[in-house]
Fold this sequence. Notes:
Elements: E1 10-12, H1 23-32, E2 36-40, H2 44-57, E3 63-66, H3 85-91, H4 94-111, E4 115-116, H5 141-157, E5 163-167, H6 188-195, H7 197-204, E6 209-212
Parallel strand pairs: 1-2, 2-3, 3-4, 5-6
Helix pairs in contact: 4-5, 5-7
Amino acid sequence: MNLAALLVPALRWDPTHGFAYLHDTIDDALELGVGGFLIRGGRRDAVTALTKELHARSPIPLLLAADVERGAGQQFDGCVGLPPLGALGVLNDPDSVRRSARIAARELKHLGLNWALAPVCDLDLDPGSPIVGTRAAGSDPAQIAELLEEWIDACQAEGVLACAKHFPGHGRAAEDSHRALPVVRARAGQLMHEDLAPFRAALDAGVASVMTAHVAYPSLDPSGAPATLSAPIL
């Protein structure tokens, strides 16, 4: 197996140079045989041109991803921005969730992308969390599970892969995992019963992928390794 196929490098839009400055990076990545790219930012027309080029040049089918928790407009100029999942959770209206997921997926597909890095399956448990907040649908595992199943089903019905994140749950972490290694010291039983419930629902809905939380859970892995690098948790 080509190990490069496990890599998904990020391509970030530059306000001055667009994607043109990434020419050599893209050449090298495609030559190595990477499995895809994460597209960050850009105008609608430029993103469409980029994805068309990537698909045409790659010798293998590519995963082209974007963070679209609030719709394609969260990343790309000229696309529709949607309410955060927290607002949809307050409405508790499955139809609104389905419509939001459908709009996001259809726009991604039109742009040439096929992988939505959404929805957030974390519980909103810590009011001071710098990571979760309105990105989560709420704090009730059962309610969230139902809404997430709707989001995933609607997204993937449009031919776009969904991604449940951040496993096994980022909602109890009080720190920003981009800047530090948070440690969640909740009991294993509590994590299994509450935090993991939305992820079980996502798997039941046939979610195509799962993103880990870069957070340590000593009750699940006493070594202290973050979930991203933990064999027991993974």
